[in-house]
Write a structure and sequence with these properties.
There is one protein chain. The protein is an alpha/beta fold. Helix content is 46%, strand content 16%. It is built from 14 helices and twelve strands. It has a five-stranded parallel beta sheet with strand order 4-3-5-6-7, sandwiched between helices. Helix 7 links the parallel strand 6 and strand 7. Helix 8 runs antiparallel to helix 9 and helix 10 packs across helix 14. The protein is globular. The structure holds fructose -6-phosphate. Fructose -6-phosphate binds next to helix 4 and helix 11.
Length: 355
């Protein structure tokens, strides 16, 4: 897991390679095999995947909605076919899978295709069943992922969604200036990820405190909520610590009852328009004497939280990609301190090829 976390600067550069097109401030995605006029006909995007692939899809939905102004929504592929879904001609369906062999995701793709829907894949393993079933898509080029939990492919999937969102956006209303600023930000992403990984010791110190707990909560808003979901999933998978993610906005509608001095909260707080709202969430948690670890951009949080990890800023739409990296390291170090079998967590398989 640690090796694959450390590979991220290199593999993100591979996902980006040959796909940035500064001449038109857009991206080049040869494998999607849909002409501009076909992409223009799309009115909605539905993203399907399981586990971390679904959560990366939630980040993708946010990117597509923000940059292309298309309604976009991610749904667990494992639920999709059981509700006799309505398949629409002007919806683009996107299947996300690292292995390309996840049974539930494959079955969702087949359900879409059986009903005449158009689906493209965001897949890591070249020539895998889902890649072939989709017939078109974006390969991650992240190389083999051996550890059971996904880390580098989660990040590369989010980057692939950023490329697609810029592509869809530039066909619509995303300006050349906005396209240009996102391309510049993508190009420096590998170096920024490298900078975060170089500060692993800081995260390990946070992990020492967390490793002693039995429950932890992750909160965030908007795309930050998806980052919180992935942080909680990673922590529970490798360290067996009970971790749940809540939308920071939903906290006072129930989960706040769980907060106590024994239950730390990891708060994902980008410095965006929701920053003041996130600060007041932290205050609510602190008022119940809950310890708060903030993963954030430098600012006032410093005074409010018990501990913080400062993440370099990107363009706001891309910030979730960087905010996730310290949470991967956190899960790894908590698991290490708890003596867990990190690369092969109990009860889990790398590829879930059965229903
Ligand atoms: C989480 C994890 C799983 C997978 C899920 C989908 O760390 O590894 O949740 O993301 O089983 O697998 P793929 O992406 O191969 O379809």
């Amino acid at each position: 897991m640690r090796k694959e976390i450390a590979e991220q600067p290199e593999v993100v550069a591979r996902t980006l390679s040959g796909r940035l097109e500064p001449r038109f401030q857009t991206t080049h995605l040869g494998g999607i095999e849909l002409a501009a006029h076909e992409l223009l006909d799309i009115r909605r995007v539905k993203i399907l995947g399981c586990g971390s692939a679904y959560i990366a899809g939630a980040i993708g939905a946010h990117l597509i909605e923000q940059l292309a102004r298309l309604p976009a929504h991610a749904e667990p592929a494992s639920e999709f076919r059981y509700r006799n879904p309505v398949i629409e001609r002007d919806t683009l369906y996107i299947a996300v899978s690292q292995s390309g062999e996840t049974f539930d995701t494959l079955a969702a793709v087949q359900e879409v295709k059986r009903k005449g829907g158009r689906v493209l894949g965001i897949v890591n393993v070249v020539g895998s069943t889902i890649a072939r079933e989709c017939g078109r898509g974006i390969y991650l080029h992240a190389g083999p992922e051996i550890a059971v939990v996904s880390t580098k492919t989660f990040t590369c999937t989010a980057v692939a969604f950023a490329l697609l969102a810029i592509h869809l956006g530039r066909i619509r209303d995303l300006s050349t200036a906005a396209g240009g600023r996102l391309l510049t930000a993508l190009a420096i992403l590998p170096g920024q990820i490298d900078g975060i990984i170089a500060r692993e010791a800081e995260v390990a110190r946070l992990a020492e405190r967390l490793a002693l707990c039995e429950h932890a909560y992750f909160v965030g808003r908007s795309a930050g909520y998806a980052v919180a979901m992935e942080g909680a999933l990673k922590l529970k998978e490798v360290s067996y610590l009970h971790a749940e993610a809540y939308s920071a906005a939903e906290l006072k509608h129930g989960p706040l009852a769980l907060i106590s001095p024994e239950t730390p909260t990891i708060a994902v707080i980008p410095r965006d328009a929701l920053y003041p709202k996130n600060l007041s969430t932290i205050e609510e948690i602190r008022a119940r004497r809950g310890p708060v670890f903030a993963v954030t951009h430098a600012g006032e949080v410093l005074a409010t939280a018990d501990a913080m990890f400062d993440v370099p800023r990107s363009e706001p739409e891309l910030d979730p990609i960087l905010l996730n990296i310290p949470l991967q390291l956190l899960a790894y170090h908590v698991a290490l301190k708890r003596g867990c079998d990190i690369d092969k967590p109990r009860n889990l398989a790398k590829s879930v090829t059965v229903e």
